[in-house]
Amino acid sequence: MNNNKIIRYINSLIFNQQQKLRNGWWILLFIALVAATRPLYSFIKPELITAGLSDTMLEALSLVLITLVTWICIALRKEGFKDVGLAINGQWFYQLALGCLIGFGQIVLIVIILMLFGAVAFNVSSNISLSGLLSAAYVMLCAVILEELLFRGFIFQRLVNGTSFWFAQLLFALVFAYGHWDNPDMTGVVKWFASLDLALAAMVFGLAYYRTQSLALPIGLHFGWNYFQGHLFGFGVSGHQLSGVLEPSFTDFPVWFTGGSFGPEASMLSVLVDLGLLLILWRWQGIAHNQNKIIKHEQASNNQVPLNEAN
């Protein structure tokens, strides 16, 4: 193999046919930058605590660093935040609100079924306040946006472009489920139902992004499910116990039906609800598809010659 062939071979490993950096290298760059933020986080956080910021306020620190990494990568690609699904406008907030509403509806449906079977009863908590709920919303929103940037953001999108959507979906569903593998109460049958549901949830969020080309809907779905599950109904959220407006108490139904202390994510009901939403999203052609149809229709209309001119 002569030098020119070697150079062309190395070039093909790094760049695609359009002489743009291959998606795999962008993924490695993102991972390397995320790794570089870990010592930065360890340095910055104690300094901010010394300056008087509380742990609650510092929940946004990890999110800020991941956003910075995302910005560096898209800036190098000469793109903007809209290219990773963060076009912050009226449509974006509409999708965010819609996602929250759907996530709320999912958990309400599960609660209704549990109550109809007599599997759970609720008492109103005496240790809840509006300030506490708002603080919890802030913490939850930071965590959710962080997870969506990591699991449906730049890396996910590069993998979709470099391989296929469903390959990326399946891989990130496994990674998302594995990321919760050591959560509290992840034992026995709970572990299997919870892992299955977490993988399905990841596929729901991924399909929500794919159908809208925006992170607003998956962020809304994720936040609506987690927040109302934990801070309204008082269930565990992926094994983490949170303070809610209500306090649930379970009867002697099996844990695979109720989810137990892990939360509804470990229940058969949650698996069925997520499967239903996944099917709906699969059949829905999406906002991006509808917008493309409108554009094509407008272009066709503009290209038509009026009859009086044709004559």
From TrEMBL:
Keyword Transmembrane helix applies: yes
CAAX prenyl protease 2/Lysostaphin resistance protein A-like domain span: 133-228
Coiled-coil segments: none
Membrane-spanning segments: 25-44, 56-76, 96-122, 128-151, 163-181, 193-212, 224-246, 266-284
Alphabetized Pfam families for the sequence: Rce1-like
This protein's UniProt keywords: Membrane, Transmembrane, Transmembrane helix
Keyword Transmembrane helix carried by entry: yes
InterPro entries hit by this protein: Rce1/LyrA-like_dom
Superkingdom of source: Bacteria
Name used for this protein in its record: Membrane protein
Protein species of origin: Thalassotalea insulae
Source species taxonomy: Bacteria, Pseudomonadati, Pseudomonadota, Gammaproteobacteria, Alteromonadales
